[in-house]
């Protein structure tokens, strides 16, 4: 009986080279297999999902997922560093084959890129020092709120914030957190996992979650036309969700169980 790697690669080859017409069509899955390498876009300024460690090596939940994907596909991996705002442009220009970067799916984003079934979830919340009085969205008025430009927290905070809120946008979550610690913003919107880590490293700031904006599910992104690649990745996510591998990666980095995941 074939092992996991052999089975997945065999399925990928069968899908990647199948043709319904007489002329071959562009196919990212076939290209990846022929190249022997997959280009995966990852935001390395987004702990605990992905970050460069002290040895300047990528690590984190999304890095583990990306490396597992390449291993099961039977190819080498090249991690392409991105920020939140340029994840979609890197896909559209062919600089990356897929995005594995806590990439929350939304109807707006789905107009320009295709999303796999979700492989994880996070709570998007507003965090601030205990001394800052914020109990609801209405309390954001008159305050400076830091968010990562182009990410789901940017979209959500911008849509919800009352007139008079000053939204300050940064290129990644790390700079948002640094701005909050430095007092450049009154509060920040982002993933609970990140804010909890920032709070643990800075106990004197007494950071706390003020309210949850939404639970956000994230997926692997790719170009719209890559249906064979999308099918393989959905199969791969379902396989590794059911065998507990994705759950183990999530718990390793997030410290909690992987929430129940739906499929499209």
Main features:
12 strands, alpha/beta, nine-stranded mixed sheet, 10 helices, D-Maltodextrin-Binding Protein, domain 2, 38% helix, 264 residues, 2 domains, three-stranded antiparallel sheet, single chain, 26% strand
Rough shape?
Answer: globular
Structural class computed from helices and strand pairing: alpha/beta
Q: What is the CATH top level name of the largest domain? A: Alpha Beta
Number of strands: 12
How far apart lie the N and C ends?
A: 31 Å
Give the overall average pLDDT.
89
Describe the structure.
With 264 residues, this protein is of the alpha/beta class. The protein has 2 domains: 4-121 and 218-254, 3-Layer(aba) Sandwich (D-Maltodextrin-Binding Protein, domain 2); 122-215, Periplasmic binding protein-like II (D-Maltodextrin-Binding Protein, domain 2, 3-Layer(aba) Sandwich). Helices cover 38% and strands 26% of the residues. The chain is built from 10 helices and 12 strands. Helix 6 (152-160) links the parallel strand 9 and strand 10. Helix 1 (4-16) packs across helix 2 and helix 1 (4-16) runs antiparallel to helix 9.
């Amino acid at each position: 009986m074939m092992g996991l790697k052999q089975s997945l690669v065999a399925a990928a080859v069968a899908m990647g080279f199948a043709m319904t017409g007489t002329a071959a069509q562009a196919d990212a899955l076939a290209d990846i297999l022929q190249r022997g390498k997959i280009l995966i876009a990852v935001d390395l300024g987004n702990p605990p999902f992905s970050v460069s460690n002290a040895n300047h090596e990528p690590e984190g939940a999304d890095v583990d997922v990306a490396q597992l994907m390449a291993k099961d596909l039977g190819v080498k991996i090249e991690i392409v560093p991105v920020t939140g705002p340029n994840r979609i442009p890197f896909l559209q220009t062919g600089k990356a084959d897929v995005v594995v970067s806590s990439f929350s799916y939304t109807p707006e984003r789905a107009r320009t890129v295709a999303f796999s079934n979700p492989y994880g979830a996070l709570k998007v919340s507003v965090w601030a020092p205990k001394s800052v009085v914020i109990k609801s969205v209405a309390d954001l008025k008159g305050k400076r709120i830091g968010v990562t430009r182009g990410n789901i927290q940017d979209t959500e905070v911008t849509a919800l914030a009352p007139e008079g809120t000053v939204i300050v946008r940064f290129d990644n979550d790390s700079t948002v957190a640094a701005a909050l610690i430095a007092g450049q913003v009154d509060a920040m919107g982002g993933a609970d996992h990140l804010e909890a880590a920032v709070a643990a490293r800075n106990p004197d700031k007494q950071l706390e979650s003020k309210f949850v904006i939404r639970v956000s599910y994230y997926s692997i992104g790719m170009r719209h036309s890559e249906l064979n690649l999308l099918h393989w990745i959905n199969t791969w996510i379902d396989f590794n969700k059911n065998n507990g591998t994705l759950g183990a990666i999530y718990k390793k980095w997030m410290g909690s169980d992987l929430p129940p995941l739906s499929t499209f």
